[in-house]
Amino acid sequence: MSNEELKIKLIELIPPATFEEGNEWMTINIESSNWKTVAQQFRSTAGFEFDYLFCLTCVDWKTHLTMVYHLTSTIHRHTLVVKSKLDRNNPEIETVSDIWRTAEFHEREVYDLFGVKFSHHPDLRRLLLTDDFNGYPLRKDFEDPVNMIKL
Amino acid sequence: MYRETQIISDGTKSPPSGGDLEGVGDLVINVGPQHPSTHGVLHLVITLSGETIKNVEPHLGYIHRSIEKMCESLSYRQFIYVTSRMDYLSSHINNHGCALCVEKGLQIEIPPRAKVIRVLMDELTRLASHQLWWGAMAMDVGALTPFFHAFREREMINDIMEETCGARLTMNYMVPGGVMFDLHPNFQKRVKEFIELFKSKIDEYDELVTDNIIFQNRMKGVGYLSKEDAISYGCTGPTARGSGVSCDIRKLYPYEVYIEVQFDEIIETGGDCFARYLVRLKELRQSLSIVEQLIDNIPEGDFQAKTKAVLKLPKGEFYSRVETARGEFGVYIVSEGGTTPYRIKFRSPGFSNLSALNHMAKGYKIGDLVAIMGTLDLVIPDIDR
Description:
Chain A has helices at 3-13, 35-44, 103-114; strands at residues 18-20, 26-30, 52-60, 64-72, 79-87, 92-94, 117-119. By secondary structure, chain A is of the alpha/beta class. In chain B, helix 4 runs antiparallel to helix 14.
């Protein structure tokens, strides 16, 4: 499906969603509380079938965090970017590791580096850093103890 | 874990119990962080029932350098050098992905000569990487000789790289706008020598290892990964193509001159270790064919487009992807219009491939784990970043 066709279908599926223009791929903003149901629809609705989550990450915008999911379909070859705003003080979003298995590791990484809590994640522990590490290094206000990196 | 054969009441011995070891308890062992088969500092905590794997839990981060954070403090010209240190066996291709992303943001069209040079370098890197994998893979399952065969030919590629790029491993040759220097005058001659020699060597690889019945017994039917699982786990590269997933970025989303050269996307449907092995071995021939097609057709002209000394990407976000020797490498840059990226994310192929390891290894014997890890072709700095 082309971006326009995708947009028409998406408006039918989730009316409150807003779109971002000017990007290479269709970008959609959704409420974090809706994410799980929407994700299931993206995965299984005929015509969408986004079966491959190729990138999952988070961006710290200083006032809030934004989760970014890059989805593509290996059947229809269309791509969709899903974004969801999170509260910076208590970031929490539903896990999608049962829909796309690759999310299990990627969500652990985001938890490790940004402190986003993924509810119902099967094994939410720090992945790259040690268990007793303090703080979330990829947040913009993280103070590096040895001052190796200055932004 | 050894259990003595039980003597039952009528005096005859019971048949072997077929791995049923209930009540004996599980054994938890650590492989790594320093273990020859992990090819780096990867730590696996394995739960065993007898010799059968029940669970594999990778512990990562032994060489985590927070490259993404580092890149946030470096300019668009500087950050590319750091990416060579991720997947050091595909450093050209990592650099290529980053350069493509910056070029996408700046909307620069690079000269045709630079495009061809980039593809040539990418394919030579892929050859070198697959050669190293082939040698190491055979060594993992107990054949020592192939390692020396593979390194003998890989050395030629390293020499070619050294001549043109000035380095053998972390080349840092691709820059936004093209490549850093022009090709060395000897480049074409030496690449042709390599092609001539390597053509016969691939057949030797086949004779030495592929057709070896002991090797086949170790690989066939081991570490099965279905097509659906490969997609769900986000596996890419030869790991996924061994399970029948079409995922070659060079074919699906062609960049540079890949659309003009003739090559096949190798797909095997076996899903086991041997299928993944075959994909990589056949890719050697494909890469060699790409190099052969391009080596006499390098256009004359500039090797670098004119760019400003200080690069500033417009506000927005950019994503580019390339096919490394391990799979899909993605670069996601969020720019605020400044001279450094606001946020940068590297989607490394090894990370996703590794996440499927537990699923692939469950139910197989501990000895098979080495074969499974070998065919995943893990490069740990690529996973830890």
